[in-house]
Amino acid sequence: MAKNGELRVALIGTQFMGKAHSNAWSQVNRFFDSPIKVVKQAICGRNEERARAMADKWQWKSVETDWKKLIERDDVDLVDICTPNNNHCEIAVAALKAGKHVAIEKPLAMNVKEANKMAEAAKAAKKMNTVWYNYRRVPALSLARQLVQEGRIGRIFHHVV
C-alpha cells in the first residue's frame, strides 16, 4: 500500500466481471468507513477500445493492453484479476513476484497444483493473495453464522441429496 493511505488498484479484464469489480471498487469508499482510499489506477484489457471505454465509464485513471506491463508499474499496489480462469495462475504469480497484492475472481485456480503455486508465491513475496467472494459480508449470512456459533438454532447437520 502506498504511504499516503491509498490502495492503488489495477484491474485486468473488461468483460462482465471486470464491470462488476469496477463497480465494487467504485463503491468501497462510499460503503465502508476506512482510512484507506481506493484509487482506480489502471484497467487492462486486450481490446484497447473496450478498455478505454471501461476507463471512461468507471473512472479508471489509465489504460494498459498488456498485463505484463501493468504489473511492473510502480503506481500499482494491488492487481485484481478478472480474466478467464485458465489465466489466473500465470498472472497472479507474476504480479506477486512483481511485489503486488492480488485479488482474483473465483475460482482461484484450475487445480490444486496451481493454487499451491500461487500460495507459495504469495508467501515468498509476503503479499496478500485473495479470492473474491461476493457474499462474504452479506448481513444475513453474518447473522446466520452468529446464530450457529451461539447455538441458538440447535445442532446443524448437512445432508447431501
Walk me through the structure.
The protein has 161 residues and is of the alpha/beta class. The chain has a single domain, classed as Rossmann fold, CATH 3.40.50.720. The protein is built from six helices and six strands, in the order βαβαβαβαβαβα. It has helices spanning 16-31, 48-58, 67-71, 88-97, 112-125, 139-149; strands at 6-12, 37-44, 62-64, 78-81, 101-104, 129-131. A six-stranded parallel sheet has the order 3-2-1-4-5-6, with helices on both faces. The radius of gyration is 18 Å and the shape is globular. It starts with 5 loop residues before the first strand and ends in a 12-residue tail after the last helix. The model has no long low-confidence stretch (mean pLDDT 91).
